[in-house]
Write a structure and sequence with these properties.
The complex is a heterodimer.
Chain A (H helix, E strand, L loop, with lengths): L2 H10 L6 H20 L4 E3 L3 E8 L2 E4 L6 E4 L2 E8 L1 H7 L2
Antiparallel strand pairs in A: 1-2, 2-5, 3-4
Helix pairs in contact in A: 1-2
Chain B lengths: L5 H12 L3 H20 L4 E3 L3 E8 L2 E4 L6 E4 L2 E8 L1 H13 L1
Antiparallel strand pairs in B: 1-2, 2-5, 3-4
Helix pairs in contact in B: 1-2
The chains are: A alpha+beta, B alpha+beta.
């Protein structure tokens, strides 16, 4: 499922709002989620899961083409932990 | 810092998009419900600009009860993983630099 299919599904399953508004709402939800994480603010969605940042320590990497050593600085990466309900639903 | 919740997202749709409170709550609920439903049907979810939710089938493997040290089999299962997209990854890396 893609973002546009998600917007179509939500539009189809409710009769209050025109698809344009649903599309706007979905974009706003996603932008807010990106903004929260980029300020290191956790996201906690009951039943679905939580998003947070994990720190990756600085390390020496290698250029895979030349084999030269490259210093990589530490960085934050987004992490998703599925909630109990979602874990149960996707398992067979 | 308090975490972002469904209530915060609904409030944003009420304040900034002008949905009424019930509509705002419903849209937020449906957003996560539709993603969950696709994943339940073994359909990967690709949200451009954010990331992909992917399903992985894990084989059964031996494990241990960490308390008792007793060997137990971990059953085969399907799990959800999240692969953040390039835009999200570069946005959160900036946070590390700004600290």
């Amino acid at each position: 499922m893609t973002k546009s299919e998600l917007i179509e599904k939500i539009s189809y399953n409710q009769d209050q709002l025109p698809p344009k508004d649903v599309e706007l709402a979905v974009r706003m939800i996603l932008d807010r989620m990106v903004n929260s994480l980029s300020n290191n603010e956790r996201i906690e969605i009951r039943g679905f899961g939580s998003f947070s940042l994990h720190y990756r320590a600085a390390r020496v990497g290698r250029n895979p083409k030349t084999g030269a050593a490259v210093d990589l600085t530490g960085k934050y990466v987004p992490h998703f932990k599925p909630g109990k309900e979602l874990r149960k639903r996707v398992d067979y | 810092m308090a975490a972002l919740t469904k209530a915060d997202l609904a409030e944003m749709l009420f304040d900034d998009l002008g949905l009424n409170k019930r509509e705002a709550r419903e849209i937020v609920e449906m957003f996560y419900a539709e993603i969950s439903e696709a994943l339940e049907k073994n359909d990967n979810v690709k949200i451009s600009g954010f990331g992909n939710f992917e399903l992985r089938d894990k084989k059964s493997r031996p494990g241990r009860n960490p308390k008792t040290g007793e060997e137990v089999a971990i059953s085969a299962r399907r799990v959800v993983t999240f692969k953040p997209g390039q835009k999200l990854r570069s946005r959160v890396e900036t946070y590390a630099r700004s600290e």
